Amino acid sequence: xxxxxxxxxxxxxxxxxxxxxxxxxxxxxxxxxxxxxxxxxxxxxxxxxxxxxxxxxxxxxxxxxxxxxxxxxxxxxxxxxxxxxxxxxxxxxxxxxxxxxxxxxxxxxxxxxxxxxxxxxxxxxxxxxxxxxxxxxxxxxxxxxxxxxxxxxxxxxxxxxxxxxxxxxxxxxxxxxxxxxxxxxxxxxxxxxxxxxxxxxxxxxxxxxxxxxxxxxxxxxxxxxxxxxxxxxxxxxxxxxxxxxxxxxxxxxxxxxxxxxxxxxxxxxxxxxxxxxxxxxxxxxxxxxxxxxxxxxx
Amino acid sequence: xxxxxxxxxxxxxxxxxxxxxxxxxxxxxxxxxxxxxxxxxxxxxxxxxxxxxxxxxxxxxxxxxxxxxxxxxxxxxxxxxxxxxxxxxxxxxxxxxxxxxxxxxxxxxxxxxxxxxxxxxxxxxxxxxxxxxxxxxxxxxxxxxxxxxxxxxxxxxxxxxxxxxxxxxxxxxxxxxxxxxxxxxxxxxxxxxxxxxxxxxxxxxxxxxxxxxxxxxxxxxxxxxxxxxxxxxxxxxxxxxxxxxxxxxxxxxxxxxxxxxxxxxxxxxxxxxxxxxxxxxxxxxxxxxxxxxxxxxx
DNA sequence: TTAATAGTGTCTCTAAGACAATATGCT
DNA sequence: AGCATATTGTCTTAGAGACACTATTAA
Lengths: 298, 298
Fold this sequence. Notes:
By secondary structure, chain A is of the alpha+beta class. Helices cover 19% and strands 38% of the residues of chain A. In chain A, strands 1, 2, 3, 4, 5, 6, 7, 8, 9 and 10 form a ten-stranded mixed β-sheet that branches.
């Protein structure tokens, strides 16, 4: 054993680790919170028209303090024998029964006092599943779970010059609606730019019905989703195995909350999908070719 | 007080919180690890030529077990009265003396066993500073700190079809060099795509001289930096107050590790900068106009 | 004068925006 | 026949790539 392998106390690494006892300084609890998105279809009275798509997120009504009766993201504490990613997959499976779906870490929220009980950080994840995969088993629990329709819109924009920079504040209205009612929150994204720095922070301006800082987490997830939709095939994880290009376009539109041009859209997604020989039937109008997600790489 | 505000034990939220005691299940330590980038100039023997830029990252040589003598990212544990962001800013200040710089959360790493002592998660941050802001005070500590030149290159690419999808593995060579020697690691990014999911994971293939999983964190940071350089003004945080467009282009090139076309580059960054009336002097060739980061919004 | 960089002009190529035209199953 | 959607064509516009040309200093 080389002398260089010994520390100031003359211990080797093995000896050091054998003697190591975790200090008794305070440690946080770490939870994962899941923003689980899916897309469903609204009922359509005209059988010849296509149903509208709706972006939905899964929430759970709290049956205990704190935030008793409020709606929260599904989640739970991370265990010492698993990664946050594994914890997220586990929670997702427990909550929805789905497995092998798109899962992405978003951000770790750690505001002091974000949980009134104790020191809890939240490592948030976003998951995209197609509604065919999951039974919408709302209400089979004493404490209910429900898919809330998502709307996220810019409410107002404020720009202020400060010495050596500016502050730009964007307020977004987050509206979540389901049979259980409507939840509304206003989340502000503030960008502070100075000579040498640029910092972005989120704050909850108002909040009616959502637990903890979950309005912030959902807002963050929607922005990540909107961003990635434009340069990845992420939205395809929201589709069933076979789908039409119009359906795919509707999903893009409901995520981005804006209308897209048909021709340009088709060109753009052309190499994200593979065409099949199947067509829609009995739709009351011209049949449409069905596509699936392209898995062979370019 | 409404009866509805009481939980299964008949407690209000206030009563619940007063009685609440944190459970004694295990909690992780949470550290922040900082990937601090700057750009320096290599010495140039020909006084008429422009010096080459180098991307550098700050590392600290460990003076204690575990990984005694290895190089690690600066960092430290998060305290219960601060956010991870505040902890990152605090560590950054302690390590470099700089303040009010660009700081961005990257990813929370939580692999089981990533720290041999105990359960430690790492919430990683990236910071960009210009080398003028900081004294390169390497060696003023018993345990040294040093700025390592960064090279990160694709080494090999493997693509494999599996049932219902594919696996794509990209191996990158991370080379860090300074007066203290050269550290080399190979990090693999694996993308596994199936019918319903796409998952990306990082693994360390080989590692010579870096502590913990820090090779992974640095690789992740470089990829984030490379990605953001193309669609934000993030690179401007690496520049001094006044700079030439050629210098800015050199910084882009050293980050992206590829040459850019001058005319196209200037068009692209035109609205990220503001021109000044100052010029370089005594450069041995035609003077160049100096620019600064544009702070007025478009 | 010349080395070396600064700065601009312009042609091409590709992708996106805009909109129109044509195609087709179903009732 | 005609509704409603499917699918393709093409003109325009914006931006990136490629490359060449001109400008300017200090030694």
